[in-house]
Write a structure and sequence with these properties.
homodimer; 656 residues; mainly alpha; four-stranded antiparallel sheet; two-stranded antiparallel ribbon; 8 strands; globular; transmembrane (chains A, B); Anoctamin transmembrane domain-containing protein (chains A, B); transmembrane helix (chains A, B); Anoctamin_TM (chains A, B); chloride channel activity (chains A, B)
């Protein structure tokens, strides 16, 4: 159907230890057996010998993928605009990707996962497999790959770069420096999946929009308006807030336009298409018959009641966890940050300041690590609905830490001491120096790690072979090089989030830094805009060259980050107002008495509660949603076949 | 299937003038012809002679309704949880109402409308019909009822009360005074339709929740805490705001639970099921073939572009209209209100105050009428998507008027003069006196109108018959009595809204009055709670006894009013803060300097913009939504038949 599908590009690699050349009984060999099974499933297998490991490269013909997708019951957009269970025989009914292939990278990855983990012992008895001289037991109905992973035979399963597409992207995107913010979003989507493409779309649009405040800030810096100067800062403040509000509204619109272009039906996404386990599929036939009787009586029955109870219990747990995090931040982090800021303020020599900063940076590193671990532990006790919801929950919690860490010092200098010189210094230091450094580190650290790993592998091999071989050993295969590259992981652990967490965190902190203190330093937007232009290319290079290909994620919005950005806008309304008061009130004439102060604080806290509350309690009761989801699933179950054939015949009629 | 369906309850009445007893040519008589056509359609017709009019009462067997519903392609919830086009042959596939009937009152009304307006001249030539001695031309393809309406032969078409159900509701609901806030919501839903039932569900829940602040307010009034008294008002303020936030969040949950109970699929409600015109049905077959080719290319093509342009044009129009309304309110109404409040403040004798109030009330009446008319005219120029959207737009505009009218005087007394005695006086006056009076008027005015109309009809008849008949003429038939009752219309005109507008307006103004000035007068919540308990019964009585049965509306949320209530909460955070400042700042020590004042004003305006903006620009571009809707419609079109038969057979298998 499509030429590109017929070229075998290997998309997944499995790493196993190098075997001795001659095995006495190849039938019993664990890896041999695994390869045989993989081929039986319909995958194309190529084995590459590395220096100290062996790599099983996997590719799949379209039909193998299609059958796996049908088994997984992946929901896929059809030509009539509704998502239906995928069926290989009715394949023409489904919408293709913008690049002409049937499955997106995320769907292909799901199918691969399903295919390789599905290899189970179908016999009644235990099969004994050997690796070298060690024997392993393969229990009936146990997944072979799971067993090999837990026994340490399989070291890693990771997605492979597609060299042709990677080089094309490198040329058109990462090294295409002439177009400042333009990016081939569709190609990024088809190569990295939805979540990463959404990040780059957001970054591009944000950078484009940043040109407006950057230009305004530059003009403010250069032109002196004399007597009108006093009106300029409030004007700038109003402009920045309106700009931010408009930007995020238009981003939401752009996001849903992107979803439409990529054929993702957002309303249907509550039925996740990508689940590696077959548990919920096998349980379908039972659940399928009983809810009918319930529907007729139409009362919130026992099941609804228990759903309601679960919902409230989950809410209480969430509140408790949030309380733990908030208390931890306020009681542990806040005093620490204030002490640092205070010492920094009162210390006179630069040497002391530097020493303090080094000490601070070291300790904050540990604190953040611990905070991240605590958050992950807390989230495991929450009954969240799926991966992405847990990831969002983690993002909120960890962002709290970073928020305190990044801004409390700035607040201290701005509000307590009205020391705008230090404030500007720190802003410049954080935004320019640290962001440039971070960009450099982001790109060099993976390379150093990779070099070190390569060096060690070569060294080890040399050592094993002894001094008999004098010629230098080189990494021959591309797959081995990729194996040695670091993967795209978050600094707070890889359980719920990948490297996107760090990239979004950087953006959010930068956004907060620039908007919350906009009145103190309008020029900051120029630096931010410049920084983001380089950020686009640096992130692209990092993903394409420095790292392994990341595992694709299906989520198609920026998720929790959107709410964090909105929160930062509200915060910046408050902080800029305070900054303005501080700036214009040099003589201290506008004293706010304690009573008025208390009332203003109450007001702002209530406003925050008012607008934050809706994020805590969902508008739709859980049992209503559960019923609806169940119904939709049931409908799809019954009618899929009929719908599909009718759509197919409809299409066929149209072609004639 | 169901016994209740087989009793013929007449649900619609058409009023025509009384004919002379002997007509020379009954075949040409317009009314005769109409009645014949009605019977041909399958309706059960009964003609009742009134004093000066003749009433054609209509009932429909279930099958007639079913076939009409199938022709109208009403979307209806099926047992598998998705909405599908109604099909009379597959009737068991559709979910029945909680009371066991197949169609809801709203659907039945739609079908009736369709049946009676569908009677067109199917011949090629003009048919001449007579009424008395006047001849009328019935053009080919013209609706007979439309013609008769425009010629004045049909005076009115209105829904009839169902005596059995009405009496039951009267006993269980309106006169059931022992249960303060409990209401038979399901029965109300099946008798009055979704929109009115939603209103009463909201009113009941609101009244139930009001008991908390009422109790708190009462306790505050009765107990003196001595030195702690100063902390009590801020505490009350925080409590009220949290209460309001919680209440509306839980109302949203309750609303979606109600929707689930009544079998309304909210996500599908963008395909309105109830459209009296057949225009969009006849255009379906064409629109059905062409969009397919577009979907494959997947670019925002010409049509998307024009949709985008339309969206922005519509937005600009909306902004212009809003600007007109806001300017009108600020430039015309605000000075007027301030003059009145000022004169009231400085006038010393009570007589002058009363005279002023009378003058004010008279002029405000006119102003509101004009405002309503202007709003309706403005809305007609907006390209809104359907009836309910226009109604919402009207609600926002007219509420602006009433907001200014109701609160500006209160603000003036509270903030300008810090005159809390006058403020409390006006609050009591508005809340208690005016609401009690309004409740009385609401119920007596319709009765007086009805009595007057009855009296006039009898008088006219007597006059016509001369003094030959001395015995008193009485209204014999129930249908004539209902005809003379006033209908449930809004005070601002009946084009987009019905009487619910006035009822919701009363609630919203009351809510604003009590929460915005909560700190000035905590006891107010007691009065509000008492008032609402009577309001429930008074409104029930009004609907059941005083008025004609209202035309049912399909909308299933409180619509624009929810946003208005949310806005009032934000407003009340600000006003209560100001009140607290005024209350505690008797010595004027907490002077806010102009600079700080300006900054605080900027902050609050920006906060409002931040949270108001999302109501202006929808999150989803119009073209994305249009595509989705088109796709869904198409899907339903193709697959309805297959889906239905499979669901039916599925159901049948289950029954065996």
């Amino acid at each position: 159907m499509d030429n590109r599908e017929e070229v075998t590009t290997f998309e997944l690699a499995i790493v196993v230890p190098k075997r001795e050349e001659k095995d006495e009984n190849p039938r019993d060999d664990c890896v041999e057996c695994f390869v045989r099974e993989l081929m039986k499933v319909g995958l194309i297998v190529e084995i590459v010998q590395g220096i100290s490991d062996e790599f099983i490269k996997l590719a799949a013909p379209l039909e193998t993928l299609g059958r796996a997708a049908a088994e997984l019951q992946i929901m896929k957009l059809t030509h009539i605009g509704v998502d239906l269970r995928f069926d290989w025989d009715q394949e023409p009914a489904f919408v293709r990707q913008p690049d002409g292939s049937l499955f997106s990278w995320c769907e292909r990855f799901c199918c691969f996962q399903h295919l390789i983990y599905r290899i189970v012992n179908r016999t009644e008895s235990v099969i004994t497999l050997t690796v070298g001289s060690i024997k392993y037991q393969w229990e009936p109905n146990e997944s072979l790959l799971e067993m090999m992973k837990s026994e340490g035979i399989v070291k890693q399963v990771f997605p492979l770069h597609d060299e042709a597409k990677r080089k094309l992207l490198l040329r058109n995107w990462a090294l295409n420096l002439l177009d400042f913010t333009w990016q081939p979003i569709d190609d990024i989507h088809s190569y990295f999946g939805t979540k990463i493409a959404t990040y780059f779309a957001f970054l591009g649009m944000y950078t484009r929009w940043l040109f407006f405040p950057a230009a305004f800030g530059l003009v403010l810096q250069m032109i002196d308006l004399g007597a009108w100067q006093i009106l300029v800062l409030p004007l700038f403040f109003v402009f920045i807030i309106s700009w931010a509000v408009f930007f995020f509204q238009f981003w939401k619109r752009k996001n849903s336009a992107l979803l439409a272009r990529w054929g993702i039906n957002y309303s249907m996404s509550l039925v996740p298409g990508c689940k590696p386990s077959g548990a919920d599929i096998s349980s379908l036939p039972e659940s399928h018959m009983e809810p009918e009787s319930k529907m007729v009586t139409r009362r919130p029955l026992e099941k609804d009641k228990s759903l309601q109870r679960d919902e409230w219990l989950g809410l209480l747990q969430k509140i408790r966890n949030t309380a733990v995090v908030v208390l931890g931040i306020i009681c542990l982090q806040l005093p620490f940050e204030l002490v640092y800021a205070h010492l920094y303020e009162i210390s006179e020599s630069d040497a002391v300041k530097y020493a303090l900063t080094v000490l601070y940076l070291l300790s904050i590193q540990y604190y953040t690590k611990i905070g991240g671990k605590v958050s992950v532990t807390l989230i495991k006790y929450e009954h969240d609905k799926g991966e992405e919801s847990s990831a969002d929950s983690l993002v909120y919690k960890v962002f709290g830490l970073y928020f305190m860490q990044s801004y409390i010092g700035l607040f201290y200098h701005a509000l307590m001491h009205r020391n705008f010189t230090t404030l500007r210094q720190i802003l410049i230091q954080r935004l320019i120096v640290s962001q440039v450094l971070e960009n450099l580190l982001e790109n060099t650290l993976p390379y150093l790690k990779y070099s070190y790993k390569k060096f060690r592998a070569v060294l080890q091999r040399k050592h094993e072979k002894g001094s008999s071989l004098r010629k230098s050993i080189r990494l021959g295969s591309r797959v081995e090089k990729e194996y040695l590259k670091p993967s795209y992981t978050a600094s707070i652990g890889d359980e719920f989030e990948d490297g996107l967490f760090d990239d979004f965190l950087e953006l959010a902190l930068q956004f907060g830094m620039s908007t919350m203190f906009a009145c103190a330093f309008p020029l900051v937007f120029c630096f931010v805009a410049l920084n983001n232009i380089t950020e686009i290319r640096a992130d692209a290079l990092k993903l394409l060259v420095m790292l392994r290909r990341p595992v694709p994620r299906a989520s198609a919005s920026i998720g929790a980050w959107l709410n964090i950005f909105q929160f930062l806008i509200v915060m910046s309304i408050c902080t800029n107002c305070t900054l303005l008061v501080c700036l214009y009130d040099q003589e201290g004439k506008w004293k706010i008495e304690p009573g008025l102060k208390a009332i203003l604080i109450i007001e702002h806290v209530l406003l925050l509660v008012k607008f934050g509350f809706s994020h805590f309690v969902p508008e739709e009761p859980a049992w209503v949603r559960a019923n609806r989801e169940k119904n939709v699933a049931q409908a799809q179950d019954i009618c899929s076949k009929q719908l599909l054939s009718s759509i197919s015949s409809f299409k066929a009629r149209k072609v004639d």
